[in-house]
Specification:
Blueprint: H1 3-12, E1 16-18, E2 21-23, E3 27-29, H2 38-47, E4 53-54, E5 58-59, H3 60-63, E6 84-89, H4 93-106, E7 110-115, H5 120-123, H6 135-148, E8 153-160, H7 165-178, E9 182-189, H8 200-209, E10 214-217, H9 223-233, E11 237-240, H10 242-246, H11 250-254, H12 264-280, H13 282-296, H14 303-312, H15 316-328
Parallel strand pairs: 3-11, 4-6, 5-6, 6-7, 7-8, 8-9, 9-10, 10-11
Antiparallel strand pairs: 1-2
Helix pairs in contact: 1-9, 2-12, 4-6, 6-7, 7-8, 12-13, 12-15, 13-14
Length: 343
């Protein structure tokens, strides 16, 4: 291990207390719609190194009915619950509180409020990042959830709808005052679809403004990126999104648990495909795997070919065969995934 890897592992393996519960590490899986599912989370757990897992976003309207783990997004396995935070979205304080009660009843580590998603389908419902336009409403949602549950309460949010660090700081203080135990901050504006680099200096300002743990999120793709975010912003943890989908073993690698050879790429893809089929059945598994393959393909020089290949497969067996055929050629692995080519 080089000096960067040693120092990064040292920082990431320090324990962290959130809401009275202690975590063994400071590298988290970010919530990603349709990607942060039980199949991917279970695969990440099998490699190790992840301090905390977050589910994909779940509608509070559905979760509050407590209809078990067959609701879209509201899925889990018993072995992951002690490391798993369920993310919910909505715009009604009472509904969000009722959903949080159901999350607590299932035994999750914590509940996360989504004020970060800027997808049109979510914002049209006046949810996600759209709520940040009304800080009083956002604060009332956090306060209502805090009164309803005792488990750790997280809030995921963006800078707002304008690039104004003062606004982000004011939001962070509101959330802390309302009872949040930890914040996950993505320092981009809601309209920004990754067209500009995230403003990491805003993470530093948010961290300085509150006394609760802050997890940084945004464009962390290498060990150097991760260490630089921790060093430059002073954040307490780092939340990985796209790179975790591209390399689910990254948590084990960056925390120094183990290293991996080139064979990990095919092994990982096949294992995930098998897990997806187990959790979702063949049809949904194919759709979920195709979404995953967009990120996974960014690891290769000709990754667009792999992504297109996956889209043409019509069965789990055909997909597995296509993967094996692709890797027979010994595809060239890039030093850092290039997501811009595929999205």
């Amino acid at each position: 291990m080089n000096e960067t890897a040693i120092e990064l592992a040292r920082r990431l393996n320090q324990p962290l207390n959130i809401g009275g519960k202690q975590l063994a590490g400071r590298l988290f899986l970010a919530p990603m719609a349709k990607l942060s599912n039980p199949a991917l989370r279970g695969l990440i757990l099998s490699y190790g190194g992840c301090g905390l897992l977050f589910s994909g976003m779940c509608s509070a309207r559905s979760v509050r009915h407590g209809a078990g783990n067959n609701i879209h997004g509201f899925m889990w396995t018993p072995e992951e619950l002690e490391f798993l935070v369920c993310q919910i979205f909505g715009n009604d304080p009472r509904m969000m509180a009722e959903a949080a009660v159901q999350v607590e009843a299932r035994g999750f580590f914590g509940v996360d409020i989504n004020f970060g998603c800027s997808a049109k389908v979510i914002c049209r419902q006046q949810c996600g990042a759209e709520v940040l336009k009304d800080p009083v409403l956002a604060e009332s949602i956090v306060r209502a959830v805090r009164k309803a549950v005792r488990i750790p309460l997280f809030v995921k949010f963006r800078t707002g709808w304008k690039d104004d660090s003062e606004y982000a700081v004011s939001l962070a203080r509101r959330f802390e005052d309302a009872g949040a135990d930890a914040l996950t901050f993505h320092p981009r504006t809601a309209p920004d679809r990754r067209t500009r680099p995230p403003r990491w200096e805003h993470i530093a300002r948010v961290k300085q403004a509150v006394s609760i743990p802050v997890s940084g999120n945004g464009d962390v793709f290498s060990p150097e990126d991760c260490l630089r975010m921790l060093t430059q912003t002073g954040c307490d943890a780092v939340s990985l999104g796209r790179i975790a989908a591209a390399k689910p073993w990254i948590f084990a690698q960056w925390t120094g648990l183990r290293d991996f050879g080139p064979e990990i790429y095919l092994q990982c893809a096949c294992r995930l495909l098998e897990r997806l089929a187990h959790h979702f059945g063949p049809d949904t598994a194919l759709r979920r795997f195709h979404k995953f393959s967009g990120y996974f393909s960014a690891n290769f020089t000709y990754g667009h070919h792999l992504h297109a290949l996956m889209s043409r497969c019509r069965s789990v067996a055909e997909t597995e065969q296509a993967l094996n055929d692709f890797f027979k050629t010994g595809p060239e692995i890039v030093s850092a995934p290039c997501f811009s080519r595929l999205f």
